[in-house]
Design goal:
Number of helices: 8
Strand content: under 5%
Distance between the termini: 29 Å
Shape: globular
Helix content: 55-70%
Number of strands: 0
Radius of gyration: 15 Å
């Protein structure tokens, strides 16, 4: 994948989610990971919850526990991580891709995205699905077929 295309996608992701990133999330990946381990989540701490590659790799188990607001806060960092790890399989990218698959939650996460955010996610999924160097072809294509492409299998028809 050409570095300029990755840079453009990263910029688009951070632009689409800038309002979500600027807000303090109700739950962090670290807090979600604590919940996953049967512990109460700690409060947000700007230093401890800076979303770096190491943070993502350590706390990705927290992703399924995030509410929509917290998930959107984390998404641009996860999308960036996935693009930078395009050729190298990681459990954290698998967790991201699974979070982009139906069924949606109540209250929804997938249906809580703006059109701009959906477009960015679809573009990243296209890279993960169709780039020859992608280590995520199968799961990215599955997520795309289930929710992100026109007439997706499980996306409610009124949202298509």
């Amino acid at each position: 994948m050409h570095p300029s295309r990755i840079a453009e996608l990263l910029e688009a992701a951070h632009s689409a989610f800038k309002i979500d990133v600027a807000q303090t999330p109700p739950l962090t990946l670290r807090g979600g990971d604590a919940i996953d381990s049967g512990k109460p989540p700690d409060e947000f701490d700007a230093a401890l919850d800076a979303i770096t590659d190491e943070y993502i790799e350590q706390y990705y188990w927290g992703l399924p526990h995030l509410d929509a607001k917290s998930w959107r806060h984390t998404l641009p960092f996860l999308l960036s991580y996935a693009l930078r790890k395009l050729e190298q399989h990681t459990d954290a990218v698998d967790a991201l891709l699974n979070s982009l698959r139906p069924p949606d939650r109540t209250p929804p996460r997938l249906a809580a995205l703006s059109t701009e955010q959906e477009i960015v996610i679809s573009r990243v999924l296209d890279v993960l699905c169709f780039s020859p160097e992608s280590a995520y072809h199968e799961l990215a294509c599955q997520a795309t077929e289930e929710w992100w492409e026109p007439n997706a299998m499980y996306r409610p028809k009124n949202d298509a």
